[in-house]
Amino acid sequence: MLDRYFALRRADFFLNYRKLRTLWPFFKACWEKKKTFLIFCFSIVYLVFLAYFVRFLPSPPEGIP
Rounded to an integer, what distance in angstroms lies between the CA atom of residue 65 and that of residue 26? Predict the structure, then answer.
C-alpha cells in the first residue's frame, strides 16, 4: 500500500517535471535577461527542495486503499 502511495507521488512529481519542460522558453528568456537570474536560481533550488521533501513524507492516511 505504501509503495503504491509513493509511486503515485513519484508519478505526480514527473508530471510536474514534464510541465516544467514546457516552460523552458520562459526560463531561457529569464536567463538571457539576467535581471531575473536570481528568480531562476531560486526556482531551481525550490524544485530540488520539493523533490527531496517528497522522499520523506509522513505515512499516508488510513483511507488510501
Answer: 39
User: Which residue type is seen at 18?
Assistant: R
| pLDDT tens by residue, the chain, 65 residues | 666 776 667 767 766 666 667 777 777 776 677 666 777 778 888 888 888 887 776 666 676 66
Integer Cα distance of 3 and 1 in angstroms: 5
Global pTM exceeds 0.70: no
- SS3 string, the chain, reads CHHHHHHHHHHHHHHHHHHHHHCHHHHHHHHHHCCCHHHHHHHHHHHHHHHHHHHCCCCCCCCCC
